[in-house]
Design a protein that fits this description.
Elements (H helix, E strand, L loop, with lengths): L1 H11 L2 H11 L9 E6 L7 E4 L5 E4 L3 E4 L5 H15 L6 E7 L2 E6 L5 E4 L6 H7 L12 E6 L5 E6 L1 H4 L16 E4 L4 E6 L5 E4 L6 H7 L12 E7 L2 E7 L1 H5 L15 E4 L5
Parallel strand pairs: 6-10, 11-15
Antiparallel strand pairs: 1-2, 1-5, 3-4, 6-7, 8-9, 8-10, 11-12, 13-14, 13-15
Length: 274
Amino acid sequence: MKKIIIFLFVCLISPALLFSQYAENNEYRITRNNLLEISVYNEPDLSKVVRVSAKGSISYPLLGEVFVEGLTAKELEEKLTSLLEMDYLVNPQVGVFIQEFSKISVLGQVKIPGYYELKSGITVLDAIALAGGFTERADFDNVILTRRDDSGRKTSFTINTSDISSEANRGIDLTLRPDDTITVPELGLVSVVGQVKSPGRFNLKVGMTVIEAIAMAGGLTDIAAPNGTKVIRTQDGKKATYTIPVGSILKGVNRNKDMLLKSGDTIVVPESFF
C-alpha cells in the first residue's frame, strides 16, 4: 500500500504546479552553465549573452571575470551596476535575464525520460514528478542519483523514495545540483515454484503480493498445501524465509498476512501429503 501511495503522489504532482510554487517561494539563484542575457540601457557594447563558467563566473566587457554563482538576477543587476558606475558609467541601467537554466537528467522507469531545467529547490521527488512520475515497473527503493563533485569525479547515491515521500520526511529529500542524473531502475522478477499450475518467473509489479503472484502463476494445484507457502528473500547477502498462510488468506482470514514482494523473491508452494 505504501508503494502505491508513493506512485500516486509522484504521478499526480503537476509540473506547472511545481514551477508556480518555485516562482512564488524561491527566487532562482544563478549557477554554472546558466546562459545569461545582460543588457545595459543605451550601451549596446555592454549588452551580451554570456554563459556561467564551471568556476561560477562570467567574462564581461570592461570588468573581466565577475563571480556570479549564488546570486539572483536582481542581485547580479545590482552588482554589475555598482561595478560599472565605480569607474566607467554614470547611473547605468542594467538588466539580467536567465535564458537557459542548468540541466538535470531523469532516466529509466519514468514516463517521460529526458533532460529538464534545474530551477531553485528542485528535489529528487520533484524531478521524478517533472518526468511524468514513475512507471508501473519502477523500483522505488533503489533510485540512483549520480553527480560530479568539484574535482569532476562521479559519485552515486541510492535513494529509497519510500523513506522520503511522507510529509514528515520531505526534509531529507535531496536538493539537486547542476548536471545531476536520476536513474530509476526497473523492478526485477519474482519466482513462483511448487504446486501452482504455471510455475515460472514473473515481472514484479507495484504493490504485488504473494496472492497476486500465485494468481499470475495460474493458481494453486489440487494437491497444494497453501498454508505452508514460503517466501524466500535474500537481503544484504542473507537469506530469510517467511511462512504465508495462503489458504487462510484466500478464505478471507488473515488477509493482513499477505506479503508485499520484492525483486528476487521466490515463492514456494509445497505439496499436501494428505
